[in-house]
């Protein structure tokens, strides 16, 4: 219909042009059955989605989706009509989320996936096959954790574990899914980095090193996948109110003798000119954009969501 409108637009010049477009669009709307209008508010619910939109539904594997940002993005993308494979090393939380999404009418599959376990990573294709959806179109590397300590007191096994989960595991899982993405000539890899992919903070050496590493890793994989419709990007948010951040608020409150509100205002959000937490909706929106055709040439980039932190 848009094409027809455009054709008439080009044919008609000047004064009559806008009127012709309006008239054609009205004729189109009048030709639709009444049920379409009833259903249009539920456009993104899979059970009402027209076949045409099926091609826009992607198979999305999210790591660490049992909590926080992973869960928020999984909920958001499922509501947009995508099929989400919610994974976590805590199988219970992944299963609970998948169950809840399926009950809401979306399409989800829950599975245990420990990104620090190379054996599990190597057999991820078998796990994906259990969904019965075909391959993975989108991998969201989200799993993460924090440990705060001066380097001299930082247990080295803990240091290695953080890097394993947030960098080596990301490389391993991307490596395991790339051949299938190459085969279908389509893939989107989205890493959940952090403001700490760009700046440092004392006592977070392992976290900051792993998150900085994501940027370098993505640049290299962007080059290695450049000849196919595969992109890899890293979203770098400042603080998002999740269990991971609540633990940090608790710890800082004890160390500095402050209330939770004081920690949030005087420490956490202070370097951020906009001074607010980043929401799950914002992160979901950025993921949606990265999945869209408009972003097919955006690769190897850091998408910084920092309320102005890095421009001060
Ligand atoms: N919350 C923030 O302010 C913030 C800001 C920037 C970036 N991030 C990043 O976002 C991601 C999610 O953090 P969050 O705040 O939602 O934390 P969270 O603690 O709420 O969730 C992290 C999830 O990762 C899972 N996980 C941990 N180790 C795992 C492993 N080995 N294998 C699989 N899953 C594992 C946990 O079970 C949990 O469900 C992390 O990578 C974090 O670094 C968080």
Write a short abstract of this structure.
The chain is 50% helix and 12% strand. With 312 residues, the chain is α/β, with parallel strands linked by helices.
Q: What does the model show?
A:
The protein has 312 residues and is of the alpha/beta class. It has 2 domains: 2-31, no CATH class; 46-240 and 278-311, NAD(P)-binding Rossmann-like Domain (Rossmann fold), CATH 3.40.50. It has 13 helices and 7 strands. The protein has helices spanning 2-11, 16-31, 34-40, 51-54, 68-79, 91-103, 118-122, 124-129, 156-183, 205-224, 243-256, 260-268, 280-291, and strands at residues 59-62, 83-88, 107-112, 138-141, 187-192, 230-237, 302-305. It has a 7-stranded parallel sheet, sandwiched between helices. Helix 1 runs antiparallel to helix 2 and helix 11 (243-256) crosses helix 12. The chain is globular, with a radius of gyration of 22 Å. Mean pLDDT is 88; it is low at 1-15 and 40-54. It binds nicotinamide-adenine-dinucleotide (NAD). Nicotinamide-adenine-dinucleotide binds at residues 63-64, 66-70, 88-90, 93, 113-116, 142-145, 165-166, 192, 194, 237, 239-240, 242-245.
Characteristics:
312 residues, alpha/beta, Rossmann fold, 13 helices, binds nicotinamide-adenine-dinucleotide
């Amino acid at each position: 219909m848009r094409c027809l409108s455009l054709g008439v637009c080009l044919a008609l010049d000047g004064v009559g042009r806008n009127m012709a477009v309006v008239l054609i669009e009205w004729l189109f709307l009048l030709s639709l059955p009444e049920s379409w209008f009833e259903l249009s508010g539920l456009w993104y619910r899979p059970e009402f989605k027209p076949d045409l939109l099926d091609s826009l539904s992607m198979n999305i594997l999210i790591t660490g989706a049992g909590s926080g940002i992973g869960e928020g993005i999984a909920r958001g993308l499922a509501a947009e009509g995508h099929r989400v494979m919610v994974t976590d090393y805590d199988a219970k939380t992944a299963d609970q989320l998948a169950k809840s999404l399926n009950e809401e009418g979306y399409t989800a599959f829950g599975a245990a996936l420990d990104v620090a376990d190379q054996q599990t990573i190597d057999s991820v294709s078998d796990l994906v096959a259990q969904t019965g959806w075909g391959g993975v179109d989108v991998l969201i590397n989200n799993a993460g954790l924090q440990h705060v300590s001066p380097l001299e007191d930082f247990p080295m096994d803990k240091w290695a574990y953080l890097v394993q989960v947030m960098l080596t595991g990301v490389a391993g899982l991307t490596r395991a899914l790339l051949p299938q993405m190459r085969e279908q000539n389509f893939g989107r890899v989205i890493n959940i980095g952090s403001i700490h992919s760009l700046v440092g903070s004392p006592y977070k050496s392992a976290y900051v090193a792993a998150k900085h590493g994501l940027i370098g890793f993505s640049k290299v994989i962007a080059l290695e996948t450049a000849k196919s419709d595969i992109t890899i990007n890293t979203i770098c948010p400042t603080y998002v109110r999740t269990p991971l951040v609540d633990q940090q608020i608790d710890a800082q409150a004890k160390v500095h003798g402050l209330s939770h509100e004081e920690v949030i205002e005087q420490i956490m959000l202070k370097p951020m000119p906009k001074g607010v937490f980043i929401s799950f909706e914002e992160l979901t929106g950025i993921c949606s954009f990265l999945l869209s055709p408009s972003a097919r040439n955006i690769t190897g980039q850091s998408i910084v969501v920092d309320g102005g932190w890095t421009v001060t």
